[in-house]
Each structure stands twice: as structure tokens, then as C-alpha cells.
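Notebook B, p. 112. Complex prediction, attempt 2.
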Amino acid sequence: MDLDASLSGETLVVRLYGELDLRVSDNLRPRLDKELDRQRVKHLLFNLRGVDFIDSSGIGFILGRYKKVKAQGGTVALAGPNRSVHRILDLSGMYKVMSGFANESEALKALEGGKQG
Amino acid sequence: MKHKNTVKLEFPSIPDNVALARVVVGTMLANMDFTLTDVDDVKVAVSEAVSNAVLHGYQNRSNGLVYLTITAEPQGLEIIVEDYGRGIQDVEKAMEPAFSTLPERMGMGFVFMKSFMDKLEVDSQVGRGTRVRMFKASLQAMRAVQ
Ligand SMILES: Nc1ncnc2c1ncn2[C@@H]1O[C@H](COP(=O)(O)OP(=O)(O)OP(=O)(O)O)[C@@H](O)[C@H]1O
Ligand SMILES: [Mg+2]
């Protein structure tokens, strides 16, 4: 299993596992888009704890979903990347458009807390 | 390391082989004089070059062949990725950050190859194919120049 998605409030929490490269992102893209369309999703949270590699294909995959969610007025957050994944995210400017969190619960608190405030 | 070690691989242009290329390169790096960050960097670079061969060179057709040549020597690691696919019209332009000929792509691949490796050379001819040569200097080689 390389993707596991569950709804928490208005946030779709997506836990990714393995190596986010060309093969994996091609495979995940239609599956995640189906989840995004199926559920009443506002925000998207990627839990990257289980990801041990990412390259430009993985970056493109995340950014593509970001555009989709953003267009519908939601936000996207990234949680729990390891050191090397974090470095690639940083270099590609991902943290300029979405916020990063140390773990899933911190990210959820920020995303779900935002709507009351 | 005492001996120069050259490994050649030939594989069909399917996305599964991108991970294979990383594993081979990672295994060769493990016995060399590199930091953990260097190892991460080189894996990203090879992943980018092989992905490009599959995705752009052969336009996701699985019947193309990708050639990977890795040479480990005391000075560092050389990686050559070749395809006989469509080729690149304007290499200089293709290497610019954020340039991509596919709408869903970021145009980050060459940026990563360039920033993570010490040398990057791209030769390409439209209709003939593309050859990417990259080199990462070992710690020993870096110390020698200082
Ligand atoms: N082996 C190749 N054969 C043909 N064209 C290539 C090849 N490699 C790169 N290109 C061309 O160069 C462009 C830039 O490549 P680069 O890897 O930087 O970005 P990308 O692959 O489009 O996007 P990303 O790498 O972020 O997924 C590609 O869009 C493509 O047009
Ligand atoms: Mg690329």
C-alpha cells in the first residue's frame, strides 16, 4: 500500500509510503484525484513520514494536487518529511506555497483550527 | 577504492526501471568516499535523467532502450544516461529552471541534476536521442583541490 486516505473534518489526510518517483506518482495521481472528487474535501494534508525518496515527479504530483485544492479555496499542508525529502521540498520552493509541519497532528490542528478562527 | 569499476546497464523504457537505476547507483556509492547527503543527491540526479529518457525521450513508450553507464573511481562517480528517442530541440532552453514541454511537469529535473552534481553535460540531436553525462567528485578529490 502506497497511499492511505481518510477524512478528518474537512481535511483529506493522505499518508504516502515508499518512493515518490515517476512510477509511483503516475500510479497515485488518478487514485488521489478520485478521492478528492469523491469526498467533500476542503483541505489536503500530505503525511510524508513514510516517504523515503522524492524527485521532480513527486514534486509535480504534490504541486498538481495543490493547484486543484487551491482552486476550490482550500489549503495544502505537508507533514513529517525526513531530512532528505525535506531538503528536496525546500529546494523546489514547496514551502513558499504550502506550510510544513513536523507531524500530522500539528498540521491538522492548524488546518482544522483555521476554520473556527 | 583501489580499482576503477564500470557497470553498464541496458533496460526498456518503463517507469519501474527508474528505481532500479537508483538502487544500482546507490549500491556503488555505498562503497565510496561520499557523505550521506552526496548519496541522496546523486540518487535524485540519476532518477531525473532516467525519468527524462522514459518520459520525454521515448514519450512513455515502453519499447525504447535506456543505457546507463556508471563508473566509480577514486576521483568520483560518473553517470551516463543515453536514449535513442526524440531528442531535444534546444538544450540550453530545456535546462532553464521551470522549462517543460509537458503541462503537468515542473521543469525541475535539470535544475536538480545541475545543483546536485559537480558536472553536467547534455548532448542531444532531434530524432536521434540524448546523452546526459554527470560527475560527482569524491570527498578525497575535493580535499585534493583545496
Ligand atoms: N531525454 C530527453 N529526451 C527528450 N527531451 C528531453 C529529455 N530530457 C529532457 N528533455 C526536455 O527537457 C525539458 C526539461 O527537462 P526537465 O527534466 O528539467 O523538466 P521536466 O522533465 O519537463 O519536468 P520535471 O523534471 O520537473 O518533471 C523536458 O520538458 C523535455 O522537453
Ligand atoms: Mg524531468
